[in-house]
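EI: anyone free to look at a 206-residue chain?
SC: sure, send it
EI:
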Amino acid sequence: MTRLLPLPIFITVMILFLTIGLIRAQPHDDDGLDAFLAPSETCVLPCWQGIRPGETTMREAVAILRNHAWVESVNVDAGALIYGLGFVTWTWNGQQPDFISDEISSIAIEESLVSQIIISTNVRFGELWLLQYAPRLGQVNVRATQSEHAVMFMPGTSRVSSFVTCPLSSRAFWNAPVILRFSEPSNILLEPYRLPRWLAHTACDA
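SC: here you go
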């Protein structure tokens, strides 16, 4: 039996999709983001800049970053150095594309191998939807004051997440900046994308 959405949730869902419809009607310039996310013959997703989760060692990743034209400085924490479990972080030098945030980006290290690449962006979720269309996979994790909205637009590609402060609003949902996460598909636990269903069954904790 089909379960109808509660009226407030139904209205929220309709506003969300009407908003993205209006966004689609506007001229859009991706500033190279589409090419940035597209796989290449030499670096197939989830590879990024020659760094492959599950294959590239910490030392190899650090060497790539230190020689990269966009990177200012690289730091390896003690856990990664001593135990092979921790983080490599780096700062940008201002030469990176405009859609990449100036915030520190990071690589998670497990067993001295890259397990995940995490890059903050200035891209709004609505803008990414314009480029990639509706997500294929996703998940919503509800927390005390905010919800994490994680999606994958095509199976086997990078994961995208954004955080929305409670209570949910259409403007906040589409304008939330996204974080790109490159990791092995086996490390990504997502399900078929069902945003209306999630909104009907989740609410911010009081």
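EI: The CA atoms of residues 56 and 114 lie 6 Å apart.
SC: 👍
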